[in-house]
Amino acid sequence: MIEAVGLTKRYGAKTAVYNLSFQVRPGSVTGFLGPNGSGKSTTMRMILGLDQPTAGHVTIGGHPFRKLPNAPRQVGALLDAKAVHGGRHARNHLLCLAQLSGIPARRVDEVLGVVGLQDVARKRSQGFSLGMGQRLGIAAALLGDPQVLLFDEPVNGLDPEGILWVRNLMKQLAAEGRTVFVSSHLMSEMALTADHLIVIGRGQLLADMSVKDFISHNSADFARVRTPHTEPQQREKLTAALTEAGGQVMSEPDGALRVTGLPLPRISDVAHDADVRLWELSPHQASLEEAYMRMTQGAVDYRSTDDPRVGLQQPVPPGYAPQMMPPPEMPQQGWYAPPPPQPGGRPFAMPAPMAPPAMPATPGENPYMTKSDNEDAR
């Protein structure tokens, strides 16, 4: 279990985290949410002993991280997937970490298989895509088979299949009784992955509750009601009846009514008593994103404004017509425009593909490989 008590961190005159207290319990996925600059990364760094708190303390299993015996075998973390030597092979990177922690070499091949990088294990990480780098970082976190895991934006750069894999991995790790702490800005993913939420803003705790309770506390549920569009008088009649019954009614852009303050059975009874036919009566619950935006709207430091260049644009004079560039006489390499239809509807022939340009190469070298890859091939 991770426990923070009165955690505070100041950098000069700036307070990044202030009096933050929470617990991350085993057996569930705990999401760590907050706007940019809210102190999430600083908090995770203090948990891992990378930053020293100005005040307060944070422990893992009752001990500060720096006092844990053989910490990599008890705590795994992914904070920055790019923190890898670019010239080192993926397997060698993990092997170095394993040797420093007394982890058997066979475990390296196991985690490479878990994250799906076994086929590129001997490729240099500098050629990895963002998603492959994330997988390598997750492999490093899993290397010691730890009971506590921290992930900062683990699905960054992953494709849909990779995102689903990470989601299932987090749930599986939590189901095994491990403590899983995940920071992310993807509300839709947190709604599908996390069981509990810790939300901070400007370094202070805003919420510490289950996902279901968080949505319920920070959103207003409502019902969508629709009457026949061919009978507008029915809509007006229902609006008056619902208002008289104590409900609040708002018009939706698509012609439906948004009703709050009345449960669905009561809305149905009111419509029946008013002799109004309903084409739709459906409940609506806010998404995690909507609840999060409502909770953190006062803790956002960076907001977009209107484009300041709008006032600098010159007005277009009347009668102005832009000059069109004449079409090129010869198509550029890699660009092709078909000719106009031929008389009689005869199809036109596509041009033959261009041969790739010749590349100089020294004997024994592949011209389409980098210098370092050729050296490896030797």
Instruction: Kindly name the structural category.
Output: alpha/beta
Helical proportion, percent range = 25-40%
Strand content: 15-25%
Distance from N terminus to C terminus (CA atoms, Å) equals 50 Å
The largest sheet, given as strand count, sense and whether it forms a barrel, is:
6 strands, mixed
Radius of gyration: 30 Å
Spatial order of the strands in the main sheet?
5-6-7-3-8-9
Low-confidence spans: 330-339, 345-351
Kindly report the average pLDDT value: 83
Q: State the order of secondary-structure elements, H for helix, E for strand.
A: EEEHEEHHHEHEHEEHEHEEHEHH
The count of strands amounts to 13
Globally, the shape reads: elongated
| Multimeric status of the protein | single chain
What is the number of helices?
Answer: 11
Description:
With about 375 residues, the chain is α/β, with parallel strands linked by helices. The protein has helices spanning about 40-45, 90-100, 105-115, 130-140, 160-175, 185-195, 210-215, 230-245, 265-275, 290-295, 370-375, and strands at about 1-10, 15-25, 30-35, 55-60, 75-80, 150, 180-185, 195-200, 205-210, 220-225, 250, 255-260, 280-285. Strands 5-6-7-3-8-9 form a 6-stranded mixed beta sheet, sandwiched between helices.
